[in-house]
């Protein structure tokens, strides 16, 4: 939801130090390869469901702005106007999934 809001209201292509792809370990083959490279003998990769339960529609934006690294850097590189639009879009999207 945050990445979609950035793409719609801001810029995703801001200058950042190089780093691994955001979703590198979403690929089970890449996860297994990385574990094997790290010395694990027979890694078992299992996909699990994850649900973030939030108390307010502002939470997803705040979590990534304060708790992330790369997405926080992307958010901080936005213009004030774009950042406000991103924050509103994320809150609106989150609000549509909950009861407040």
Describe the structure.
With 100 residues, the chain is an all-alpha fold. It has one domain (2-95). Helix content is 50%, strand content 0%. It is built from five helices and no strands. The protein has helices at 2-9, 28-37, 59-67, 70-76, 80-95. Helix 1 (2-9) packs across helix 5 (80-95). The mean pLDDT is 90.
Query: Helical content, roughly?
Result: 40-55%
Straight-line distance between termini: 18 Å
List low-confidence stretches.
Answer: none
* Percent in strands: under 5%
Labels describing this entry:
100 residues; mainly alpha
Short note summarizing the structure:
The chain is an all-alpha fold and 100 residues long.
SSE blueprint and pairings:
Elements: H1 2-9, H2 28-37, H3 59-67, H4 70-76, H5 80-95
């Amino acid at each position: 939801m945050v990445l979609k809001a950035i793409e719609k209201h801001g810029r995703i292509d801001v200058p950042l130090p190089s780093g691994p792809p955001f979703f590198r370990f979403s690929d089970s083959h890449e996860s297994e390869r990385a574990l094997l490279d790290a010395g694990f003998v027979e890694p078992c990769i299992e996909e699990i469901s994850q649900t973030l339960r939030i108390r307010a529609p502002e939470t997803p934006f705040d979590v990534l702005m304060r708790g992330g690294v790369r997405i926080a850097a992307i958010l901080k590189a936005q213009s004030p106007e774009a950042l406000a639009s991103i924050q509103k879009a994320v809150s609106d999207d989150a609000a549509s999934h909950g009861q407040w």
